[in-house]
Write a structure and sequence with these properties.
single chain; 163 residues; mainly alpha; Helix Hairpins; 5 helices; 82% helix; 0% strand
């Protein structure tokens, strides 16, 4: 089965059909395949256009009917090429939107995991115990500062005389 018929007939994997739709990776792969196929078709049409133009020039004024036919074919190929350009543009836009959606989904999922982990970490923490602990730390820092101040003051050994 050709890529085109697979694309239009939905020849996807059984696993993706059972889940209710393709995964983002499967959809991206298909879009890339379609882009490649259309790019090859573009190249083919561009060579055909060049050939028809050369044929029209070759026949020139000698055989006007053949030159006209070549120009008509060239015009048809250019129309097809224009349609393919539009289709490619649409597919590229869709692929980029799908990539962004997939990225956003992954970011959201990871943020959910982080939120669950934070919830688990905070499970064993009691706000009252934390407040008491912080008060104890503050008290001990004050005591340490008082001790430090007492040690750092100059001793008054003999400096002060009592008259």
């Amino acid at each position: 089965m050709s890529k085109i018929s697979k694309f239009f007939k939905g020849g996807g994997s059984a696993a993706s059909k059972g889940r209710g739709g393709p995964s983002p990776q499967e959809a991206l792969a298909r879009l890339r395949e379609t882009e490649e196929m259309l790019s090859k078709k573009q190249e083919y049409l561009e060579t055909r256009i060049a050939r028809e133009l050369a044929a029209a020039r070759q026949h020139g004024t000698k055989n006007k009917r053949a030159a006209l036919q070549a120009l008509k074919r060239k015009k048809r190929y250019e129309k097809q090429l224009s349609q393919i350009d539009g289709t490619l543009s649409t597919i590229e836009f869709q692929r980029e939107a799908l990539e962004n959606s997939h990225t956003n989904t992954e970011v959201l999922r990871n943020m959910g995991y982080a939120a669950q982990a934070m919830k688990k970490v905070h499970e064993n923490m009691d706000l009252n115990k934390i407040d008491d602990l912080m008060q104890d730390i503050t008290e001990q820092q004050d005591v340490a500062q008082e001790i430090s101040d007492a040690i750092s003051n100059r001793a008054a050994f003999g400096d002060e005389f009592d008259e």
